[in-house]
Amino acid sequence: MTALLRDIAYVRSGDKGNTLTIGVIAREPEHYATVLRTVTPDRVKALFGDWVHGPVHVYPMDNIEAVVVYMENALGGGATSTLRLDQTGKSIGNAILRLRLPGDV
After folding, report:
1. Average per-residue pLDDT in the chain?
2. Which residues have a Cβ under 8 Å from the Cβ of 43 and sit 6 or more positions away?
3. CA 31 – CA 91 distance, rounded (Å)
4. In this predicted model, what pLDDT tens digit does every residue of 66-102 receive, in sequence order?
5. Which residues lie below 8 Å from residue 97, measured CB to CB, with a gap of 6+?
6. What is the rounded CA–CA span in Å between residue 9 and residue 47?
7. 15, 94 contact by CB (below 8 A)
8. Which among 42, 66, 81, 92 could disulfide-bond with 77, CB atoms 3.0 to 4.6 Å apart, if both were Cys?
9. What is the mean predicted confidence (pLDDT) over 15-40?
10. Integer Cα distance of 17 and 79 in angstroms
């Protein structure tokens, strides 16, 4: 079975307008290095494909074994403008947990 990000991390997310922010927090300190290898701008962009029209930024937060993912133009115009079903930050934030882990944990 393929290991997924959800096996080693949890998320908190939010949205403002057309911008999405996701905090990915390692469940255990020893998993933080794997979170850093897993959650990269290229991998996040590939996961969401055409849903993210702007850049993806990933900011490490070493002091709490977490990363902040900041996606611009990612919500189809925002909650009041989009035609997407259930496109809020919470549902998309949880979708990032589908990222496959590189190598073994």
Report:
1. 85
2. 99
3. 23
4. 999 998 887 765 555 554 555 566 677 888 999 999 9
5. 4, 5, 6, 9, 10, 11
6. 17
7. no
8. 81
9. 92
10. 7
**Dihedral sign of CA atoms 53, 59, 64, 100 in order:** positive
Give the single-character DSSP code of 72: S
How many CB atoms sit inside 10 A of residue 94's CB? 14
3-state secondary structure 2-48: CCEHHHCEEEEEEEECCEEEEEEEECCHHHHHHHHHHCCHHHHHHHH
> Torsions phi, psi of 22, nearest 5?
-130, 125
Helix (H) or strand (E) holding 68, with range, is: strand 66-71
Listed in sequence order, the residues at least 6 apart from 50 whose beta carbon sits closer than 8 Å to its beta carbon are none
